[in-house]
């Protein structure tokens, strides 16, 4: 007997839902040597994560200027306000505050810059959400200490956070400790400031680095509750739903094992201890970590909410000959039922509903989607005398994903908000290109560094403004 499957009817978004956008300092700010800023690992990654880091800051590094938010933040925040943003997620560049990472005192010019950014957000009634460490470890900490493989970074990070909480704790309600903490396994230099090729690092090296970040996260979560008791502290993980390629139990187990690799860091942040499946993985693979009793105590400081990025899902198979996904940065097997973006990232709106249900049921903590969006090669055109981008493909992508957020809320998931990734065009993290555009706002700058840096509203700008104004009722 067959049963008809009907599409669930999602309810409205909750009152107070935080609509907005997200960026990272190294991809948007520029001003790489202004205001006392030191070098970060991003200054030696001129081609993004696709090529090895170079010895020094290079003239062809687009991130040195990026889209010049450092000088144009007031103009950009006004545009965010025009769209109706309720929240803006941005990161603080660690090397603006502690230029070398191990400095004794913070850099006042750096703190003052973020004071000015917060002033603008407050003027427009936009809630700030701050990522404390977003892929921009100070370069000195990478080269002198070996990045997060070194336990000393816990103390440096704690000093950095203390400076932020003391200066901004009364102004910022939402804090994220580390961006996509689970990505250290795949991108050790980008995510962990570890200056060694991935193939030269052991699994023990990588998991020790993540352990240090987890301990640091727990320690500063406690610190925030002392210095900024009204604040909410969240973790940030890269969400990656994993489907078995076939109904074979072998494929189901392969998918479970891969999913555990992402679950682990949320489990530790939310439950305060290492899960049994990860301890088994360590035993089976000869991975040994240096874990102190103080570390175990620090991990008990669990987060208030879980934030995550979502771009794609993957399949897994026990068959070693199954075709891997060329655009899937986190591995996995291509899903034959899905289409892909221009960069090979498979598009799966329903996967976002799966993630929201899964995380809510697993952790019972409020959820915040802090990255989701479509990178595409936009074309600036003139319509009725106004320059714009006819990005219906982005509108379709985001509409379809937000419909699934609505469905997950109807399912019972508690979702605090949604910040689209790259709400203004930014330099891509993966390729360091500007031609891979995510924003609702087009920035006139090209991969060769030419352009006026002028801002133009894309078609999606007006669409997102209407979605926010209607609290999601405009979605189709």
UniProtKB/TrEMBL annotation:
It is an enzyme of class 3 (hydrolase). Transmembrane segments: none annotated. Keywords: Glycosidase, Hydrolase. InterPro entries: GH, GH_1_N_CS, Glyco_hydro_1, Glyco_hydro_1_AS. GO terms for molecular function: hydrolase activity, acting on glycosyl bonds. Signal peptide: none annotated. Its EC number is 3.2.1.-. It comes from the Bacteria. Belongs to the glycosyl hydrolase 1 family. PANTHER family: 6-PHOSPHO-BETA-GLUCOSIDASE ASCB-RELATED, GLYCOSYL HYDROLASE. This is Glycoside hydrolase family 1 protein. It comes from Arthrobacter horti.
